[in-house]
Specification:
The chain is mainly α. The protein has helices at about 5-80, 90-100.
Length: about 140
């Protein structure tokens, strides 16, 4: 075999191998990108399904709680029409709860008390009187 023939064959194979490796790299890159996107999509889908299941469980729990509260409300409303109402243990418990809550201050939730004492609607201390030269009770 002639060395020129071998060199010609090598000249044809080297560019083909280079092109093949570039094409292979490009195809692998595209496959890797598609796999990454698919894995990301699968992860989001799994998180959505978990969240969806949790929300459904919470909704069912809330419905059960509403049913229970409705039954309790109907039972408490029927207590007042009972002929044994004066001696009923439910009535005694309701009265006891009312007495326990009577000593506690009742107000709007989240409302803070004034730490400096009570003030009237104008923002003045109740004990401060307006002088003759001070109309409206405001300082000079």
């Amino acid at each position: 075999m002639d060395w020129n023939t071998v060199i010609e064959i090598l000249k044809w194979l080297v560019p083909i191998g280079g092109f093949g490796s570039v094409a292979g790299w490009f195809i692998n890159r595209t496959e890797r990108e598609l796999k990454r996107i698919r894995d990301s999509h699968d992860a989001y889908k799994a998180m959505y399904e978990d969240l969806n299941q949790t929300v459904k469980e919470d909704i069912n729990e809330k419905q059960e709680l509403r049913k229970t509260m409705s039954r309790l409300q109907r039972a408490v409303n029927k207590v007042f029409s009972c002929r044994y109402f004066p001696d009923c243990p439910v009535n005694l418990e309701l009265l006891r709860n009312k007495a326990d809550n009577a000593g506690k201050p009742q107000g709007v939730a989240g409302q803070r008390r004034n730490p400096r004492g009570s003030r009237n609607d104008t923002g003045q201390d109740p004990g401060v009187k307006s002088g003759d030269g001070d109309p409206g009770g405001e300082p000079p």
